[in-house]
């Protein structure tokens, strides 16, 4: 399956959230819906794109109101194995002096016609990681600023490393919403600059 999607040069599309299935809560709102619509259109047009996002096993959150009208937030859990296929690749990102290992799942987004877009879901729920680091890709935009910053590094740095580890040939990187507060675009840009500057002087 992997050989069939790495046999062409693609554009890498990185986004913290992508709404690609109504039962998979890997988005929080408009940004994710926009990203999902873009990927569905790309599939319809059979454009050479590979999307990268986080697994978000706990979703964003499910909102309910208690008897007093106060908002209650609970995780929106989903079973990733019911929808995606685990890939045999792991990459490492160093965060605060710790090695954090990142795996990936493959979801194939089929368009309304014959097109199909591969979506990689990055996942730190691996045996190699500490209990704390296993949860880094669980909650979309969850936790404190440190947790969010680590998520952005996993997407931006880990995503680029995962694409290369899987053998993807890439012509461009598209980073959805270039904001350090809402995406890992900064880290991907920094990683790309370091990579190409080093190659230029080899």
Structure description:
The longest helix is centred in the C-terminal third of the chain and has 21 residues. With 202 residues, the protein is of the alpha/beta class. The strands form two sheets. Strands 1, 2, 5, 6, 7, 8 and 9 form a seven-stranded mixed β-sheet that branches. It is globular, with a radius of gyration of 17 Å. The C terminus is likely disordered. 30% of the residues lie in helices and 27% in strands. The termini are far apart. Helix 4 crosses helix 5. The chain has a single domain, classed as Glycogen Phosphorylase B (Rossmann fold). It is built from five helices and nine strands.
Cα end-to-end separation: 35 Å
Number of domains: 1
Helix content: 25-40%
The mean pLDDT is 84
Shape: globular
Biggest β-sheet strands, sense, barrel: 7 strands, mixed
**How many DSSP H or I helices?**
5
Strand content: 25-35%
The CATH homologous superfamily corresponds to Glycogen Phosphorylase B
The CATH level-2 architecture is identified as 3-Layer(aba) Sandwich
Note the run of SSEs as H and E.
HEHEEEEEEEHHEH
CATH fold topology? Rossmann fold
Category by helix and strand content: alpha/beta
> In terms of per-residue confidence, which ranges show pLDDT below 50 for 5 or more consecutive residues?
178-186, 196-202
CATH class: Alpha Beta
Task: Report the radius of gyration as a whole number of Å.
Answer: 17 Å
Topology, number of strands: 9
């Amino acid at each position: 399956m992997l050989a069939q999607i790495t046999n062409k040069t693609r554009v890498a599309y990185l986004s913290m959230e992508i709404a690609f299935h109504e039962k998979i809560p890997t988005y929080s709102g408009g940004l994710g819906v926009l990203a999902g619509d873009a990927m569905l259109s790309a599939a319809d047009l059979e454009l050479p794109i590979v999307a990268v996002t986080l697994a978000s096993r706990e979703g964003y959150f499910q909102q309910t109101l208690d008897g007093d009208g106060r908002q209650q937030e609970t995780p929106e859990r989903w079973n990733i194995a019911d929808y995606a296929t685990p890939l045999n690749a792991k990459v490492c990102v160093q965060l605060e002096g710790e090695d954090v290992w990142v795996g990936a799942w493959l979801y194939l987004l089929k368009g309304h016609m014959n097109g199909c877009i591969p979506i990689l879901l990055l996942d730190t729920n691996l045996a190699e990681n500490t209990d704390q680091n296993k949860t880094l890709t669980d909650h979309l935009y969850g936790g404190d600023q440190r947790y969010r910053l680590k998520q952005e590094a996993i997407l931006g740095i880990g995503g680029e490393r995962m694409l290369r580890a899987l053998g993807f040939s890439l012509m461009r990187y598209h980073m959805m919403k270039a904001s350090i507060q809402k995406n890992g675009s900064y880290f991907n840009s920094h990683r790309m600059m370091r990579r190409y500057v080093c190659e230029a002087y080899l």
